[in-house]
Every structure is written in C-alpha cells, then in structure tokens.
Amino acid sequence: RDGSGRAAPRRGDANSSKNIQPNAGLQEITTDNGQCYGMFCYNFEFERTEEELPKHWKPMIRVAVSGAAGQISNHLLFQIASGLTFGEDQPVALHLLGSDRSKDAVQGVAMELEDSCYPLLREVWISVDPLQAFRDADWAILIGAKPRGPGMERSDLLDLNGQIFQMQGKALNEVADPDCKVVVVGNPCNTNALIAMQNAPNLKRKNFHALTRLDQNRARSQLAVKSNCHYASVKNVAIWGNHSTTQVPDFVNATILGEPAEKVISDQDWLEEEFTPVVQTRGAAVIKKWGRSSGASTAVSISDHIRSLLKPTEEGDCFCMAVCTDGNPYGIEEGLIYSMPLRSKGDGDYEIIEDFEINDYLREKIVKSQEELMNEKGCVSHLIGEEGGACAITEDTMLPGEN
C-alpha cells in the first residue's frame, strides 16, 4: 500500500528481491492510473520503504495535472515535487495528463523529474485519458486548454474549452477522491470551473476553484511599487469577479503598513483610473519584454493558491480565488464561479470574508463582472444541463497577453 493507505498500483516484477529494473525510461506497465515512468516503476518493497520514511511525513496524496507538457506545468511540477506547494512533509504522486500530440513531451518532463531525485516524489503516472489521470486524485490542477485561434470569438472559445472541461468534470465525478479539490487554470477559467463543477455532482461544489491569485499578486505588487513599500506590507487586497478585463482589483479594503491603502496612496485618480488597467495588462507587458507569457509567475500563483488553503490566513489579510457563489454575503448571483476575498483555517477549506466594504465604486464594477459571468453561463448552458440559455457576449474581455 502507498502512504495514503490505498492499494498501490502494481509496479515492476513482484518476485524481485532487489529494486532493480533492467530498462530505463517509460515502462510498458499500464494500470488504471496510466503508465508509470522510469524509476517510479521499480518494485519498491513497500513495508521496508514506509518504515524508512521520515516519521513526520504525512500520508501521500495524489495530484493530477492536465496540460502537463505546457510552460506553466514545466515550472509547477517541480515546485510540487520539491515540497514548495504542499509542504516539505507531504509526499506526492503525480498523475500527468497530456494528449496524443504531447505525450512525448510529458515523458520528457517525467525524465527531468526523475533526474531531480526529489525525496517527496513517490510516483509519476502518465496518461492521455482523464479517467486514468484523475483516479483517486486528492487534487486536480486543470491547466490544459485550447488557445484562441485567429478570428475566434470569446463565445467560440467558451464552447470549445467548455467541451474539454465537461469531459474532465465527468471523469472527476467518476474516479476522483470524493473530497478532491479542483483548481482550474485553463481559460476562460471561471466558466470552465463552473462547467467542471456542474458535471461532477459527486464532488463538493465548494471544492471547485478558478485561479485569480496571479491577479491578486499583481495588484499587491503594483500597490507596493506605488507606495514605495515592500509587497509583504500590503495586505487585504481582493480580486472580485471574472478573470477578464471586468475583474475588480480592490484597493478600497487594502492596507499598506497597517493603514488604509487610500490613506498611504493619496493619488485617488491613479487608484481609480490607472491601477486596474496596470494589473490587467501586466501579462501583455511581460510578453512584450521577453517574448513569453507569464508561465513562472502563474505557477507560483497556483502554489500560493494551494498553500492559502493549507495554512491559516493571517489576521487582517485575505486570499482570493474564484469560488461558487452559493450563499455568499454580498448579493452576488448564486450558481457562478466568482472571485471573492477568503480566509482559511489551514484545513483545506475556506470561508468567504463577510465584512469587506463595498462602496459605490466597487459595487458598479462587481455587478458588471457578475453580468459577464451570467452571460458566459448562458453560452455554455448546453454543457451544464440547463435549457434555454442565451449567449449574449458582445465584447472581447480576454486579458491582454492571454489566449
């Protein structure tokens, strides 16, 4: 059995008395989890191995990652394997989901993971089938999505990627751990998370999140630069709404060195007119400077997102991710995936912070982002089992620098 107490997938020759495998590289050992890779196919003697593990280590968790050959994953997977994401006492099994086209590249990633000799990395599995990759997953990080092609409207992208997340939601529903937490990164991430959630009724609605932490990190950074303070002193910065140009970076509730941000930064015109566009266009600015999208900072923000659920939130601070709006205290339409300020006790769960001030400036923008998400929901009604939805998207609100 593996460290989680579940029966471990069969690996290697069960009659071998030594952990020796004659062939390097991908082994032709296929199970319900896909194909194991390299040294991760060795026939570990589990009783002996478990006895030798550090006593303070937690039971192993299974982490599925889609888009495993992409730029974001190429940073994230090594953060996970090193202990940066889930903790230095958390052994992991990685389930890497690729496609027929990217399978060789995923094997290359697995080779680098093998060569890195991370003690916490106990298993690596490769698959092109979500039913294999998501089996028994404790976490699913859904990065893979189709980029927008030339001439493609946002509504077209919603439908194209929606079909992917409908399929993945159904797979999660069938084979993932019932308490699996799902982090959706592939864009349009809010509505993709909604589609996956609606197609996975066996999983908790609260456990579906869309990534807005990079937006939050960018907002903190810009407030720090403007106030000439280190970003560690910037707290309580929220992102409301959709991961699009209707997103609402919240300076109203932010603090800098314990003081209201509006008191420290006296330039109200900058806060209301320039701050939000700077946050929104940061990805495009990165591409302009070095010709690549923000893969590294996106990966860091995914790790931040996960750690925020695993560590207690500091007093006077919040973290942000887009979550299900059911029962929210701000009057936002229920049944959406919408970014809000959250706190956690560090147990993997979260609660919506209820006492953020919503002034007229924020309310107008919060409602606009809500309306956009309701329109997106209408565009994908056929993918979430709802009838009569109308697709009323009239403008392109994709963030600059993102597909």
How do the helices and strands line up, and which of them pair or pack?
Blueprint: E1 26-31, E2 34-37, H1 46-52, E3 61-66, H2 71-82, E4 92-97, H3 103-116, E5 121-127, H4 130-133, E6 139-142, H5 154-175, E7 181-184, H6 189-198, E8 208-210, H7 213-227, E9 234-235, E10 238-240, E11 248-250, E12 255-256, E13 259-260, H8 261-264, H9 268-280, H10 282-290, H11 295-310, E14 319-324, E15 337-343, E16 351-352, H12 360-379
Helix pairs in contact: 2-11, 5-6, 7-9
Order of helices and strands: EEHEHEHEHEHEHEHEEEEEHHHHEEEH
Strand order of the largest sheet: 1-2-5-4-3-6-7-8
Percent of residues in helical segments? 25-40%
Number of strands: 16
Helical segment tally? 12
Q: Residue ranges: pLDDT <50 for 5 or more in a row?
A: 1-26, 43-48
Output mean pLDDT.
88
**Structural class from helices and strands?**
alpha/beta
Query: Termini separation (Å)?
Result: 42 Å
Which outline best applies?
globular
Sketch the major β-sheet.
Answer: 8 strands, mixed
Radius of gyration: 22 Å
- Percentage of residues in DSSP E strands: 15-25%
